[in-house]
């Protein structure tokens, strides 16, 4: 070795790992979701709260009346 390098050694290595571990999925923010559909790669998405979005509130139907008896 050249004397100016001393004993310093640097190495890099790539290792495969899941995009999200089970622990990371459990720690997702409440507004995030993982959408899984067969034959399609999983999608990380933001949850849409229809009851909190003005555009969707208008589309929500009132609950059906309860039957007596």
From TrEMBL:
It holds the Pfam family T4SS-DNA_transf. One of its GO terms (cellular component) is membrane. This is Conjugal transfer protein TraG.
């Amino acid at each position: 070795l050249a004397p100016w390098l001393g004993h310093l050694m640097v190495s890099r290595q790539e290792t495969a790992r899941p995009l999200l571990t089970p622990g990371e999925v459990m720690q997702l923010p409440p507004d995030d979701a993982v959408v899984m559909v067969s034959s399609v790669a999983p999608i990380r998405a933001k949850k849409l709260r229809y009851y909190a979005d003005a555009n969707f509130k208008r589309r929500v139907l009132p609950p059906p009346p309860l039957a007596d008896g």
